[in-house]
Amino acid sequence: MSRELFSDEAEFGILGAVLLKPELFDEICSKVAVSDFHDLESAALYQVMIDCHAAGVPIDVVTLSDCRQRLPSGKATLAHAGEVAMNVPSAANWKAYARIVRERAVLRQIVNAAYVINDTANEERPLSEVIAMAQQATADLRDLDDDGQQDYYKASEILPAVIDTIDSKFNKTMPTGLSTGLEKLDELVRGLRPGNMIVVGGLTGSGKTILGLQIAQHVTCKLAGAGLAMTKEELVTRGLASLGGINLSALDSGDLQDDDWPKLTSAANVLMGAKLYVNDQAGMTVARIRSIARQCQRREGLSVLLIDYIQLISAESSSNRSLEVGKISTALKNLAKELKIPVIVLAQLNRGSTNRPDKRPRPSDIRDSGQIEQDADVVILVHRDMESEEGQNGVTELIVGKVRHARVGSCMVQQQGKYVRFVDFEGRPPSNEDVEMGRSFASKFKGNKKHE
């Protein structure tokens, strides 16, 4: 027995519940939209209810008729509303009716999407274009797993869990968030938190990808990554260099020393046991990233998602690029909230900072869209001045230009270029006087060169 794609009875039940108990309207309206109705008469009557409510008019059979005398078929609104009211004896089961109406509406959307996909497949278009059209056709379908959740909560209901969390953090039995692996950076951002979007920005060659990958590796070798700027082989090779402390050039050329092999074996064992998932497909869209991430979370478990980088994500349409990147940014923020994990998004900066006296970047320097800065919970800017002796020796400033749950600030780290990683800076950071006078402080950190 096949399932019907609509239920006139459930649609009548929703309308009848409003007529019998008008005080339920706001709650019902938050669950069911006009577009969820299949029957045109019922949809029209529901719209009249919405119009009356918006105008501050009480909802009953007479006021509905006064608001709109006839429905699309020509039938009198008074007659149709009266028929609905008489055939629904109780409003008690309105939630069940609402679920049925929404489920059938989604089923109809799925069927319509299938027709679109079928028509596209029969037009002899390239396979990649058919797949893209299929993704677009299904992108607006929403899951029904939020049914039954409360729309709002009383503070007293939330308070016990919050107090327990504070107590656990005080007793050090619960971390405030995932560690970045860099002590000074952790002090600034206070952990990478579930549902947060963390933007790591930098100019080309500044080390933003190194930082993003290193954070993700530290979180896991439980890592989940969607790597868009490099091949999967390059990403894993960098992981071996970073975890093993092996010269990346030696791995690329094969000129390994005797003492490199034990390091390589150790790093390989770590990666073999890691929850590291990499995708290096070109032309990825947010819809595709979301699909892969949800699948990975369901099958493998997901601790963090790394996007390298936002400006490489393909837009669903070819309109204004700034608007499209803004939409992509908001979608990634929503994905973080949906998956309840930190999403680390790498982003290119424009070159505006290079014209400033101190050359230090700001969150507003993120390229293509200011929406990225607005959506981000944390913005970390990687600043390495290659014109200075310090920068040439790998000293890098991590500027936390935005953080919702802490104060902005910065810290110094040492980039170990050949190992493609950062370590905590062991020397003395420059004072304000040093910065203002352009005074070199290379001698303060020369001892760190042994890490390079």
Describe the fold and architecture.
The chain is of the alpha/beta class. The chain folds into 2 domains: 1-144, Orthogonal Bundle (DNAb Helicase, Chain A); 178-451, Rossmann fold (3-Layer(aba) Sandwich), CATH 3.40.50.300. The chain has helices at 8-20, 25-31, 40-54, 61-67, 77-87, 94-121, 127-138, 155-170, 183-189, 208-220, 232-244, 248-253, 260-272, 286-299, 321-339, 371-375, 389-392, 432-437; strands at residues 197-202, 224-227, 305-308, 343-348, 378-383, 395-403, 409-416, 421-424. The chain has an 8-stranded mixed β-sheet with strand order 2-3-4-1-5-6-7-8, sandwiched between helices. A hairpin with a 5-residue loop joins β6 and β7. α1 (8-20) packs antiparallel against α6 (94-121) and α11 packs across α13. The protein is elongated and about 90 Å long. Mean pLDDT is 78; it is low at 142-148, 222-229 and 435-452.
User: How large is the share of residues in beta strands?
Assistant: 5-15%
Mean pLDDT: 78
CATH-level-2 architecture of the largest domain: 3-Layer(aba) Sandwich
Beginning-to-end CA distance, first to last residue: 69 Å
List the helices and strands and how they pair.
Elements: H1 8-20, H2 25-31, H3 40-54, H4 61-67, H5 77-87, H6 94-121, H7 127-138, H8 155-170, H9 183-189, E1 197-202, H10 208-220, E2 224-227, H11 232-244, H12 248-253, H13 260-272, H14 286-299, E3 305-308, H15 321-339, E4 343-348, H16 371-375, E5 378-383, H17 389-392, E6 395-403, E7 409-416, E8 421-424, H18 432-437
Parallel strand pairs: 1-4, 1-5, 2-3, 3-4
Antiparallel strand pairs: 5-6, 6-7, 7-8
Helix pairs in contact: 1-3, 1-5, 1-6, 4-5, 6-7, 11-13, 14-15
